[in-house]
Amino acid sequence: MTDQATLMFGIGATKAGTSWLYRYLCAHPDCAMPATKELHYFDTTSEHDLDGTIRDLERQERQIAWNAERKEGLEQALRFMKVEGLKRLRKMLKAPRTDDQAYREFMLSHFEEGAKLTGDITPSYALLPAARLSDMVGMAAETRFIYILRDPVDRLWSHVRMVARRQAEEGQPLHPVATRILENVIHKKMRPAMLARSDYTGILEKLDQAIPRENLKIVFFEDMFRENTIRDICEFLNISYHPAELKKKVHAGQAVALDPELKFAARALLDDQYQAMERRFGDLPNRWKRDFAKVA
Question: Where are the transmembrane segments (predicted)?
């Protein structure tokens, strides 16, 4: 990476606005972002994980190419450019990883004249061990990490709905599928990775250990869609302020009501997270405080 380049990592949380952040940076004149949000370089160390990521990229390529064939002019050209970007990503992921040089070169290749930043926004990086997160700090002369916190129950329920959409058969109502998944998470401790992504306390402890304070920014999802927050993020990333579409949602899940009793059970399950974040940050967004009185 060049001395002028900033490499940013968006490391979560899952279902906490990372897709919106990626779209914002894609449209920012100071940034040159990859063709897809999640590169999954640091969390595909096993052959099984890598194979799954490669298959997903191949599926994306086929879908985008199919859509491109039905477009004309600039819209078609942009889609074919994205396909080529995904192919280059697949090639990089398959390259030897002894010194991370292929990753560095891949990220450097995104810089265009005048671009100041590129990024890798992969929420599952929050689950990496502290040692690997520390390695990521040295991937460029300037690195920045952003971690977005969302109300724990809201984040978990949004995550559950996303999984339910993938599991539900065509035409099947999402509510019973999502409810069953959340019941299994709460009462049977199934899907440990889903709960691990809700462990803000453990994740922040790792980040504190691995990443210098000046390289890390914690943002609350509930505060993110405001001009002053976007200005703050731009300053942290060393890029100019660029107006954002603050009301535009990206990958917003289908609205599915969370049953009150199950919501209370989820709130109790995650109570330690609420208390730990209150101790760490003091005042929390109002959305986080709405149920405090119900769990004592």
Answer: none
Q: Are strands 142-149 and 216-220 parallel, antiparallel or unpaired?
A: parallel
Residue 2: what pLDDT? 53
Residue 284: CA count within 13 A, CB half-sphere: 18
With the CA atoms of 204, 47, 50 and 218 taken in that order, what torsion angle do they form, in degrees rounded to the nearest 10? 0
CA angle 243, 231, 226 (to 5 degrees): 70
Interatomic CA distance for residues 292 and 284, integer angstroms: 11
pTM of the model: 0.92
Strands (E), the chain: 6-10, 117-121, 142-149, 216-220
Q: Cβ-count burial of 222 within 10 angstroms (0-12 exposed, 13-18 middle, 19+ buried)? A: buried
Q: How many residues does the chain have?
A: 296
Sequence-separated (6 or more) residues with CB below 8 Å from residue 262: 179, 182, 183, 186
Give the Cα separation of 295 and 293 in Å (integer). Answer: 6
Hey, is 10 helix, strand or coil? strand
Nearest to 270 by CA among 147, 146, 154: 154
| Whether residue 164 has a cis bond before it, omega within 30° of 0 | no
Task: Divide the 296 residues of the chain into consecutive groups of 10 and give the mean pLDDT of each group.
Answer: 80 95 96 95 94 95 92 90 94 93 92 88 97 96 97 96 88 90 88 91 98 98 96 97 82 77 94 96 92 53
